[in-house]
Every structure is written in structure tokens, then in C-alpha cells.
Amino acid sequence: MADEEQVPPPGEDGLDGAGEDIAYEPNEAGDSPELVNRLIPEDIRERYEVHSYRAAALILKEAHPAEFEELMQALRAFTLTEMHPIADPIRT
User: Fold this and answer.
1) Pick from 66, 85, 90: nearest CA to 8
2) Partner of 17 at 20 to 30 A CA spacing, among 9, 24, 49, 65?
3) What percent helix, strand, coil does the chain show, rounded to 5?
4) Is 48 exposed, middle or buried (0-12, 13-18, 19+ CB in 10 A)?
5) In a 3-state reduction of DSSP, which class is residue 59?
6) DSSP state letter for 47
């Protein structure tokens, strides 16, 4: 569509290296889907696309279980009331 903002691919966005540590898709630093499935409740995985990097989910769940559960409850309660395009915060 002509009215849609075109987002340049990483490296061609003029950000001079800003955001180079941001992954736009799972990569070698990502934890296995099996680990994510074991740590993240099924209802959360059904509602969201969940990825964990460098054992983040494991560390959060084991070292800070109350905060982990608070995060799961927040994800369960979260809803969008209107559909609006969500801008990429890295590229806006």
C-alpha cells in the first residue's frame, strides 16, 4: 500500500549501529522451544509468541518467582481495546 510507512531492513535504517543487539527474529542466543514450553504456562504461550534468550525465563522464574508470577498475571490481564498499528520503537 502506498500509504504504509516502509521500514528499511536492519543495517539500512540510518541508525548508525543503534539497536545492533536487537534480534528481529529468534537467533543462536535463543533458548530452545522445549525450555520455553517447560517454563511458560500454556495459556500464555497460546496467547503470545514467546521467546527467551540467554536463559532469561529460567533465571526470572527460579531467582524471582514472585516477579515471574506477577508478569504472567499481567500478561493474562493485558488486552488491546482498539486495533491500531503498533510502531516499531527501535525505528520510530
Assistant:
1) 90
2) 49
3) 35, 0, 60
4) exposed
5) helix
6) H
C-alpha cell at 21: 543487539
pTM comes to 0.61
Position 1 scores a pLDDT of 45
53: nearest Cα among 21, 34, 33, 30 = 30
Q: Is 82 helix (H, G, I), strand (E, B) or coil?
A: coil
- For residue 18, count other CB atoms closer than 10 A to its CB: 11
Q: What is the pLDDT of residues 18-62, one digit of tens each?
A: 555 666 677 888 899 999 999 999 999 999 999 999 999 999 999
Cα 40 from Cα 51, distance rounded (Å): 10
Containing 87, the helix (H) or strand (E) segment is none
